[in-house]
């Protein structure tokens, strides 16, 4: 596995919260008359600290600022994007960068340090410092796949949703490809694990928050997704968790598991292989709401059947439920505690080079590691092939300022 550079650690994980410009006041002060001169849809700046005098305005990126270079002392951002104020020309991210949130009404303005030399506008705050998507590197050795592989190159890949509702496909070489141009924040569950439509290509399943409908987005085999098809006609908001599991029913087709919020029951929805789900079957009598993460991790214990990894909320323990034919076997403890520092678990199959399924996690702010701490560290736990996990490896530190990993 290629380990990405752990760059600009410590400072940058907290930068997003710390470098926003300090508020000087609402636009009700005597300066209001000048600040309010900024037209709707524009970013404006003044050389004075109260928005008086000559006004700079733009609604497009400015690589240099001419006579306005290093003069911004008060600013307002009436655009619908984040304004990144770069200390260096040409939108450099290596010098200082401060962000200013979108404020179309122009009710908030703030002070700047007379250091700004270029201005850029971006959809999400993290893009002031980073690419829109994080770094993902998977093994360069092709593996027997089946899931965690949307573009069918037998290397594990990741989908990332950003705060603007865009969906990015990370193929595993550090690059990202836009595969959803917007609207994905309308989904309150997003899962994938192999093929549901029967064409051999991995698909994505999403639950629409407003309707409780379940949608199948057929994978094109390239990382892109085709036109969606209705998979569940409502009612799915009754489920606290939805898991794309792999094959549990034993017919070789990918299935879905779901925990019923009201009862804590675990249901198996067998995939039909034609983009629909068959009649559900009860596979867990109750208690499943005590688990606050469920991952269809693939075959972790080496018996050829897909298994389920879950996290117990109250203890932070990690359990492995081995898959049997149409049911789950007795659980085995595989993590004795501390797993509540994880924000996200990803079951992507083998991300190393040994042919064994691994577990990938993204951390919360409470995580403290060896070379990364806080929110957005990406860790890989190598599966040993007997159900247990090896020690964590910190593989990236820029998985923050986003809205989900799948
Ligand atoms: Ca792939
Ligand atoms: Ca498919
Ligand atoms: Ca099945
Ligand atoms: Ca297994």
TrEMBL record:
<dbReference type="Pfam" id="PF13517">
    <property type="entry name" value="FG-GAP_3"/>
</dbReference>
<dbReference type="InterPro" id="IPR013517">
    <property type="entry name" value="FG-GAP"/>
</dbReference>
<dbReference type="InterPro" id="IPR028994">
    <property type="entry name" value="Integrin_alpha_N"/>
</dbReference>
<keyword id="KW-0732">Signal</keyword>
<dbReference type="Pfam" id="PF03995">
    <property type="entry name" value="Inhibitor_I36"/>
</dbReference>
<protein>
    <submittedName>
        <fullName>FG-GAP-like repeat-containing protein</fullName>
    </submittedName>
</protein>
<feature type="signal peptide">
    <location>
        <begin position="1"/>
        <end position="33"/>
    </location>
</feature>
């Amino acid at each position: 596995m290629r380990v990405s550079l752990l760059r600009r650690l410590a400072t940058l994980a907290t930068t997003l919260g710390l470098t926003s410009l300090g508020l000087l006041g609402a636009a009700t002060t005597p300066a209001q008359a000048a600040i309010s001169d900024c037209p709707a849809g524009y970013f404006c700046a003044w050389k004075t600290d109260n928005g008086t005098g000559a006004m700079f305005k733009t609604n497009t990126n400015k690589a240099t600022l001419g006579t306005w270079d290093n003069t911004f002392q008060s600013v307002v951002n009436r655009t619908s994007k984040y304004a990144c104020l770069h200390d260096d020309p040409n939108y450099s991210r290596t010098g200082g960068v401060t962000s200013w949130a979108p404020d179309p009404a122009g009710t908030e303005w703030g002070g700047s340090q007379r250091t700004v030399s270029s201005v850029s506008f971006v959809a999400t705050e993290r893009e002031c410092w980073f690419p829109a998507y994080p770094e993902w590197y998977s093994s360069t050795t092709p593996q027997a796949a089946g899931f965690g592989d949307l573009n069918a190159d037998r290397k594990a890949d990741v989908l990332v949703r950003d705060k603007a509702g865009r969906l990015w496909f990370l193929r595993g070489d550090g690059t990202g490809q836009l595969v959803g141009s917007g609207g994905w924040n309308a989904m309150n569950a997003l899962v994938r694990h192999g093929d549901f439509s029967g064409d051999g290509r991995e698909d994505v399943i999403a639950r629409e928050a407003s309707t409780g409908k379940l949608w199948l987005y057929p994978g094109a085999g390239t990382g892109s997704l085709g036109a969606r098809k209705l998979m569940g006609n409502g009612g799915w908001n009754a489920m606290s968790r939805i898991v794309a599991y792999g094959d549990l029913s034993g017919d070789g087709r990918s299935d879905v598991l779901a925990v019923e919020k009201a009862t804590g029951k675990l249901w198996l929805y067998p995939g039909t292989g034609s983009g629909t789900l068959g009649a559900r079957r009860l596979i867990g009598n109750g208690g499943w709401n005590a688990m606050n993460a469920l991952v269809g991790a693939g075959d972790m214990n080496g018996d050829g059947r897909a298994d389920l990894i879950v996290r117990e909320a109250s203890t932070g323990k990690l359990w492995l439920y081995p898959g049997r034919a149409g049911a789950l076997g007795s659980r085995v403890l595989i993590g004795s505690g501390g797993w509540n520092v994880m924000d996200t678990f990803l079951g992507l199959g083998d991300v190393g080079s040994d042919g064994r399924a691994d577990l990938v996690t993204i951390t919360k702010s409470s995580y403290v590691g060896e070379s990364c701490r806080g929110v957005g560290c990406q860790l890989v736990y190598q599966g040993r092939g007997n159900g247990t996990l090896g020690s964590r490896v910190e593989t990236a530190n820029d998985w923050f300022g986003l809205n989900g990993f799948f």
